[in-house]
Amino acid sequence: MKGFLEGLGALLCVAGVCGVIRELTDGWFRFMNLTRFLTENVGFLEGRELFANIVIAALGIALATMASRVVKS
User: Fold this and answer.
1) Whole-angstrom Cα distance, residue 19 to residue 3?
2) Distances in Å between the alpha carbon of 48 and those of 37, 55, 58?
3) Looking at residue 32, what DSSP letter applies?
4) How far, in Å, CA of 22 to CA of 60, rounded?
5) I need a surface site. Which of 11, 20, 26, 38 has the fewest CB within 10 A?
């Protein structure tokens, strides 16, 4: 479980960073368009895609950090 959570946190972090780069380059960086589906299809996130991607990256870092602190049984 520890490894799964660390991997999920790393994936979220990479997806968030890729989303931030995609937003800053105005769609030129199309690698990992996963966050595009999250940010463009949710009504209250319209116009706030950069902030949403930063939050996704921060959640990934937090999840990976918390998973690394869990004692493996």
Assistant:
1) 24
2) 13, 11, 16
3) -
4) 18
5) 26
